[in-house]
Amino acid sequence: MSFDIEKIRSDFPILKELVHGQPLVYLDAAATSLKPTCVIEAVTKHYQSETSNVHRGIHFLSAQATQKYEDTRSSMAKLINAKECEVIFTKGTTDSINLVANSFGEKFLNPGDVILLSTMEHHSNIVPWQLVAQKKGAKVIEVPITDIGEIDIDAYKKLLNQYPVKMVSINHISNTLGTINPVKELIQMAHAHDAYFCVDAAQSGSHLKIDVRDIDCDFLALSGHKMFGPTGTGILYGKESLLEEIPPYQGGGAMIKEVSFEKTTFNDLPEKFEAGTPNIAGVIALNKAIQYIEELGLDQIAAHEDSILRYATKRIKEIEGVQILGESKNKASVLSFSIEGTHPHDIGMIVDEQGVAIRTGHHCTQPLMKRFNITASARASFGVYNNTEDVDRFIESLKKAKELL
Q: Considering 232, 267, 294, which residue would you say is the last residue of a domain?
């Protein structure tokens, strides 16, 4: 597929909608991406003409659904360079991290062990670790960040040397700062100290190439709904040897080989971690999202989004009193900001009246807000379907908001 921005925009039917009488400008990709027609149609098709449960029936519809469901696993494994048995379907990044924290924690965490998390983590990569640390007598310690929103590498090294670190869990891309963290380097340092590493890749799936073999992560979590797929879909990647060793997170159907009241034996990977009826239609449609990404090309997607981010960053500086949150040179398409003398929520309401969708608040990163001594910010996050006209309307709506406020 050639990179034709107008053709790409036509693939997303919601962009034809009017909001408050204005054409929609959607700048909230970091919360969830828009969905192309091919994904929407795949969900509809499953419920209209292919409905059946997977892995449980020998009839035609069940076999067909199972094949399509497993085709998505194959596509995802190829996308991130993993084995198929290492791809566990979940509800999304939050579900995946909870799975790792509980199952890994149950097997490996001991009293006194340390879990390192950075200041810029989403609450979904903080709270599950706090819960398991409390349960196991372990401790969560913060890895600080710099004033421009990057991991403080020297501080990270010191923490690895100073404490008995068992697990490090850090995001690939910050949902608030847009910072792209050097996860391969961070993983190498963790492994040198016999620590495991989990990557929160929620923001990476449709923005950057992910190669789990190259970066050598132990676990990686991502969400389908942030990469053009349906909500309630995602995956956990884990090294096969680790997934074999840790206990299942949930019990139920599909994840067992044999059950008696005396003993239960668990299924092979990946079914060991996939209890119950999954989001079948969502997972099948996720394959269409993966194919869409591959057709566009992640390199081309990243280049386009980077050009939009640079243009937006340049234009927003035209507004007096703007302060940008997160100014790493290595950023993805997230632009968080505040305007002196205004509240982010007021900005969000006024730009919404002009058809521009941005997000305001703490973005589920309250420790990060505390680090920069603020309670909230406004955030514009860009997707492959955004163009310079979207940015121009965004900037004009901000100027109007500043004038009114």
A: 294
